[in-house]
Amino acid sequence: MFFYEELLGMERDTSRDTPSWTQFFYPNLPGTQIGLYEDKPTGTGEAVLTLVVKDIFLARDFLISEGIDVSPIKDVGAGVLLAFFKDFDGNTLGLRENLLF
Question: If you average pLDDT over residues 27-34, what whole number do you get?
Answer without folding.
Answer: 82
